[in-house]
Amino acid sequence: MQEDEYDYLFKLVMIGDSRVGKTNLLMRYTKDEFDNNTVTTVGVQFARKMIQLENKQIVKAQIWDTAGQERYRSISNVYYRGASGALLVYDITDRKSFQNTSLWLKELRQHADNNLVVLLVGNKVDLVEKREVTKEEAAQFAEDQHLAFVETSALDGNNVDLAYERVIKEIQKVVLAQEQQESQEIEMNKHQQQSNQYQDQGIRKSYINTKKKEVNDMKLSVIGEDTYNQKKKKKNSKCCD
After folding, report:
1. Most distant CA pair in the chain: distance in Å?
2. Which residues, by range, are in coiled-coil regions (predicted)?
3. DSSP structure string for 159-193
4. pLDDT, tens only, 169-228
5. pTM for this one?
6. Residue 104's closest CA among 136, 70, 138, 132?
7. Is residue 81 one of the residues assigned to a domain?
8. Can you give the CATH number for the domain in which 69 is found?
């Protein structure tokens, strides 16, 4: 697929604490790669991928991998703006990273669009023996916060494609709903304009009819006055004779 040929452009941001595996999730999805020696992201990294949806439409996904360290928060905030979706990532072997998802979510909602699609991602399920966060606990948090939820492994690729494509499909639903609403509003405005036009035409027609009636009344009045004067002349003429 050509990168300049697409139907939709969606911006996705990846947020969460440092070392939860955001960069490797991005690498696995966009390059099908994994690097055990991945260094902590500094600032923001960027990748893109073209996806064909079931209806044959093409989506160009721009994915921003934001730094998890506190000192980069002010940089990351800029990249929330204009985002269509977000993957909020925590490490299932690190309870603190899960607890901090509430802070990340609060920050995200302060800076992002109200229609933003958010997916809670529990990464590193390949380390299940070290699990500190249960799937049930995370699922309940996601439900309470109205988020979608999935567990993944960047190491073996488990559910990685599913995570990104789920976000993209949900974004498409939001976009289609917005397009439909805009189309309905345009149609309503069109009908309203037509109604106003017909109303204006009715007012003009009523005004013209009123003026015609006034003219006719004036003519009748003049005719009546002339008839009266003629009768008066005849009467005076007879009287004088």
Report:
1. 137
2. 174-201
3. THHHHHHHHHHHHHHHHHHHHHHHHHHHHHHHHHH
4. 999 999 888 778 777 777 777 767 766 666 766 677 776 777 677 766 666 665 565 555
5. 0.73
6. 70
7. yes
8. 3.40.50.300
